[in-house]
Amino acid sequence: MPPATTGVTLDTRLPFVLGGPSAKKLADAFDMRTVGDLLSHYPRRYVQRGAASDLDALTVDEQVTVQARVRSAQNRTYGKPDHGRRRNRQPVRTEVVVTDGSGELLLTFFKQPWQIDKLKPGALGLFAGKVGSFRGRRQLLHPEYVLLDPVGGSSTDADGDYAAHLVRPMIPVYPATARLASWRIASCCAAALDALGELDDPLPADLRDRRGLVDLRTALEGVHRPDDVADHQCGRERLRYDEALVTQVVLARRRLLLDTLPAIARESVTGGLLERFDQRLPFALTDGQRRVGKEIASDLSRNQPMHRLLQGEVGSGKTVVALRAMLQVVDSGGQAALLAPTEVLAAQHHRTLTTMLGDLALGGMLGGADGATAVRLLTGSLGTTARRRALLDVSSGAAGIAVGTHALLEDRVAFAELGLVIVDEQHRFGVEQRAALTERGTAARPHVLVMTATPIPRTVAMTVFGDLDTSVLAEVPAGRLPVQTSVVPAERPGWLERGWQRVREEVAQGRQAYVVCPRIGADEAAGDSGEESAPQQPDPDSPRLPPGHAVLDTAAHLQAGPLAGLRVEVLHGRLPPDVKDAVMDRFTTGAVDVVVSTTVVEVGVDVPNATVMVVLDAERFGLSQLHQLRGRVGRGAAAGLCLLVTDADADSPARKRLTDLAATTDGFAVSQLDVTLRREGDVLGAVQSGRRSSLRLLSVVQHEHVIAQARADATELVDGDPDLERLPGLRAAVANLEDTSGADYIDKA
Length: 749
Ligand code: ADP
Ligand code: MG
Fold this sequence. Notes:
Elements: H1 14-18, H2 20-30, H3 35-39, E1 45-48, E2 63-77, E3 92-99, E4 104-110, H4 115-118, E5 124-134, E6 137-141, E7 144-149, H5 157-164, E8 170-173, H6 182-195, H7 205-211, H8 216-224, H9 229-258, H10 273-280, H11 287-300, E9 307-312, H12 318-331, E10 335-339, H13 343-357, E11 374-378, H14 384-396, E12 399-404, E13 418-423, H15 431-438, E14 447-452, H16 457-465, E15 469-473, E16 484-489, H17 493-508, E17 512-516, H18 551-560, E18 568-571, H19 577-588, E19 594-597, E20 610-615, H20 623-630, E21 641-646, H21 653-663, H22 667-689, H23 704-720, H24 728-739
Parallel strand pairs: 4-6, 9-14, 9-15, 10-12, 10-13, 11-12, 13-14, 16-21, 17-19, 17-20, 18-19, 20-21
Antiparallel strand pairs: 1-8, 2-3, 2-5, 3-4, 5-6, 5-7
Helix pairs in contact: 8-9, 9-23, 9-24, 10-12, 11-12, 20-22
């Protein structure tokens, strides 16, 4: 079809190019509005015309498009024998078997006996639908199809329409829905490409040459209508680079802007709190703590806001590093806020900091050292009086250090002079929360340090994109032994018995244990209180699982049986804060042997005497989460043991994840594993919910070099032309990304 219209661009609305009904289908299924939206819906893969699909690899419930040839087609009737002429009045089922040469797939139609006139043995077609199962065979019920190679000219006119541009050597297979088959999308893309006028290529020609990339139109043609593999590979390479470049330009422009909003330099002071604290440290800092401490100290003494990730292995001693940074800021007249994801952890930090500081934290009190400061705890469950006092000390500046949960982010908390924000266990926070604290309307921006052992995908992305400096603390203090992790499969009941016996042995030696369950009890889900993180389902599409072990039942069962006679208590987010504190206190002081809990102990909890952890239904937790959990044991001189109890099948992916985790003690390796897994989840999720992501071809894990190239190019472009006046195409793409809140990998903080 020749272009009926002129001046069609990527911004042209789809109805104008495709007509209303097709445009509406695309909008409904994928939220597409413009030609650009449509043309950035890239094929998932390509099939060579006539090449074998892999019918044996189809899994039930998957929405698929397959190329196959009809092997046989039959109409079947029910009940009474077939009486010739009356056939059409009987309920009838058409069974068509298609094959890719080896595997078979059953297509079933009800009350459409005429299907056998179209689907003749030998016909080649694309078939789309949701894979079901019928008497042990995989089937598509009422599939949509298009014949590529009908037998005996039986193709209908409608088929002919679609088949016209399917007469190509390579057929793109798009993410499709039940109501919008892949070839219909292909047909829309073809129409859009035909109508498209002159394009403003966002990439200047010299840059394309330098990076060996094709121009935009060639790329779009190559991806949607390739003649061969090279076509779509070149196209993808070019479009992937665009994603990296546009993101890097947004970041580069943001950096320019930030330069106008400086932070206050917080230099260390001779004879200050930091120096006095260092003198009384009960242990020598590890080399890593010293090195990281220097990196942070030098960031803080600049008037450019620090934005640093401390990627510190579980148990590597991040808290001391954080405290030393906070003291440097307090010494120079600023305040520091330490944010923890749970009340349990905030309270623990408050205790730890107060204890470590001793009289240095008794500012304004009897017995306080000269120039001492105060540490205040601010959580949601604080009593009114305590809360008022804490708020007052924070706003007057009497408290140099505030420790808290998200309650610290509330508007009513006004700092006298906030100089540093530290986010502990950053993977448990939403981005918005961090943004809220760092964008608090002061003239100067606070320095920001985020700490975690297992960075979230977005953070990994930020470091890859180069906008977050990273300090790594890999070593744990000397003399500490790595946690030994074992998978305890349900098919070996003896192993779990042996596990409980190990718990008893450790307790007999004066040590302590954790038992972790995915939920609290009877009909309560863990996580309601915001304290626990709900176990992360590795596969959001997997069928709902039966309820897993519950804290309350498990505690009762253990006390009555395997752990009878031990001092067992429960801990979960539904308990009132003072009860939680009391349980943690008793555990810390050794008055409790075993804590049966939810993931409320996931992060940061530090009881060096605890040596064993048993995680029940381990397959229900994310890998990073399990890594955090096992970090609770082996924090003292004795070795730690973590048992991952699971009833996942021996050859299931879930089981493989657990054995992978057991095989490594490296938290960075674990978060890489998790990033890979979750990215796959994201891609699926985006297709299903119609949500669109700005990064489609670019993978943070696989394309680091592309991202680095794009960073260099973006910096050069923006330095020479901050508003991109000479590059209208790029300016439009950048504006588009800046507009969508879905600038997924760009952290507001
Ligand atoms: P994480 O990095 O997991 O937050 P913590 O800061 O809670 O680790 O530290 C774990 C334990 O190690 C704490 O009990 C802490 O007092 C101790 N610790 C920290 N640094 C050292 C060190 N240099 N030498 C010995 N023990 C240390
Ligand atoms: Mg910690």
